[in-house]
Amino acid sequence: MGIAAVGAGLxxxxxxxxxxxxxxxxxxxxxxxxxxxxxxxxxxxxxxxxLGGLIGIVFTGILILAHAAKQNSFxxxxxxxxxxxxxxxxxxxxxxxPLWMPKRPGTVHPIETVRYQEQGGxxxxxxxQEDE
Length: 132
Description:
This protein is about 45% helix and about 5% strand. The protein has about 130 residues and is mainly alpha-helical. The chain has a domain at about 75-125. The chain is elongated.
């Protein structure tokens, strides 16, 4: 159908590629609720693009980001540690620290500050467990 639509001149090749990538990415959500949320946001952004073009998309994206920044889960900001920015805790946001760095980030206020301990109670890694 895509090739026929391009051949008939209804859509361009770039539009077809974007639609195909979007369709494949829609199956990447691990949960139905997450997929439903993304679908609602997608339609909201499409409506904003139709009404306001690029400025509408940017404005809607800022509104979505502001809404996410207001949310809390168990007393922790939804966008933590990005808002407020906490330097050392940003290490675990993009790439996960190895297990030999056993200290957990303080963003989520953990009870146990060490990630993993051996059977005897001594921690794995080179650092010492800090008592607070």
